[in-house]
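Listing S7. Sequence submitted for prediction.
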Amino acid sequence: MRRRTFRRLKLASRRPELHHYVYVVLLDPRVAKLRKVQASNPLRDESQPCVYVGMTGLKPEERFENHKRGIKAARIVQRYGMRLLPELYEVYNPMPFEAAAQMERELADDLRKIGYTVAGGY
């Protein structure tokens, strides 16, 4: 098989439209004391964890590492991020950009409704 044909087939076999992800990061409980976080989570249940909800075109693991290194980082994740919570997002990934943008907001809202303290999720 010629190289050009192989490249075309390889690109066609990938689904480039499905390469966005939502992700959830567990945050240090000290985040709940921040005024801005308290204001956006009036129904906070102290028994539920603090989380950050985001969306990315990278794998969630890569994005989390970038946050921790300060590369296009959300300051709250850089300072307080502990680990990813794949059990809250794996079933949704991957997806197209538009779906990921909507899912980020909906997931954040759903987690807030059940008492999580949520940052992000714009």
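Caption to Listing S7: primary sequence and predicted structure tokens for the chain studied. The two ends are 47 Å apart (CA to CA). Residues 18-120 form one domain.
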